[in-house]
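Recall the central idea of this unit: under ordinary conditions, the amino acid sequence of a chain determines the structure it adopts. In this exercise we apply that idea directly, starting from the sequence alone.
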Amino acid sequence: MLNKQIAEKLEHAFSQHGFAEPSVATLQKLSGVSLRTLYKYYPSKESMIVAALTNRHQRYLYYFASSSESTGEAWVTSAFEHLSDWMKNSAPHGCLSIQALAAYPNNVQIAEAVKQHKRDIQQLLAEKSGHPELSEQLFLLHEGIASGWPIVGDSIIASANRMVADLFVQYLKQPKEI
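Accordingly, the structure predicted from this sequence is:
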């Protein structure tokens, strides 16, 4: 489980310091292990980033899915409100995945980790909303919150939830095919 502990510390380090600034020597100090141990588990800075993103992905999905409501529109609005706490406590600078992709746009492993994270969020929104056909719109709102929260703050949550209500009303008004 040492690799998991290292990944947690790397996630924290990248969250606090970004991706360009910390050197491997800095990451080694922040991870609390020897350079040899760090390289044993993660042989490059890019693999350290993937480990941090994977750790964050697991934490985030658990956190986001643990909204107080079970399904439907209520789950989505509750999850978005829950997202406000995540942004305050874990992502005050915005989405770590998007930051990693911006710092390493040509790295295939980082790009795949980010894409998987985003696909899983969209899938969770499809399942928990009870309306898979709204998953792209809900995902777009989620991403807007993650991108806009550092600039706008909590008011973006209220705006997104008004849009969720409008989406569900519009969807329910559409005639259903039999």
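DSSP finds nine helices and no strands in the chain.
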